[in-house]
Fold this protein.
Amino acid sequence: MTDTPASQPESAAPSTPAAVRGIAPLDAAWIARTVAIALDEDLGAAPGRDVTTQATIGPDVVREAHLVAREDGTVAGLAVVPEVLAQVCARFGLAPVEVSLDVADGTRVRRGVVLARLRGPVQALLVGERTLLNLASRASGVATATRAWSDVLDAAPRADGTCATVLDTRKTTPGLRELDKYAVRCGGGTNKRMGLYDVAMIKDNHVVAAGSVSAAIERVRATFPDVLVQVEADLLEQAVEAVEAGADFLLLDNMPDDVLAATVRAVRALEPTHGRVELEATGNLTLDRAAAVAATGVDYMSVGALTHSAPILDLALDLQ
């Protein structure tokens, strides 16, 4: 149901691509489409224009620029940088920009660290500046927020020595889900599901519509036998009912820590006859509660704020 968690680089500046370091990469076709839309938004329909830059700087002026972190954080989304600049150059017939990435996505960085060095037409650098910053800053902000959760959970192993994992949700910005969920992977988190198509999530309204938990599970199994089935429960009794009905995964919603722990024990007691059931805590989760929630024995914690409320990481493009 879940992707393999991203690797967790500590600092420094490895040059190894993120994919090699265990983080499933951004889809190249998605990057190209998204950048094209973002540039149209900024420049007008292709090729568009930047009335300030094109009026004040000739197309043959070449300089170097540095992409710099203005604060500490975890980097993500740097793959958009060369794509933005390549599309700008193609639109305006400019010579290509040379892009050298000094750090890999998923790397912790300190304020002032140079993330990338760009050399090419100043027109291209300035036209593409805001677009590449918008995307990379957002992704890095999500990665930084996720890393904070990953750090707390890694420092709070459960009784069996394993650690709970932080998950994202579908609370992403429309059109940017691919970027948001990639950034979660860069921060050490795991993607729960990419959309409505890959995992069945039976919530209270589905139960009402179907008539019961068992009926909802049976209908999913009959219609989409290839997907895992998760059921939302906010009471211990509901969790037990869902396991007995054949759920693969439980979403334990807004449970106090003592109720959550009791629910985990009850579900685990059913596993010899019903098989392994993965358990996810959600609702009203904070970093201050994370260690206590992990101690209940849940496998995951899903945190919508990773993608719907994370502040950007402040990045800047400095012309040299």
The chain has eleven helices and twelve strands.
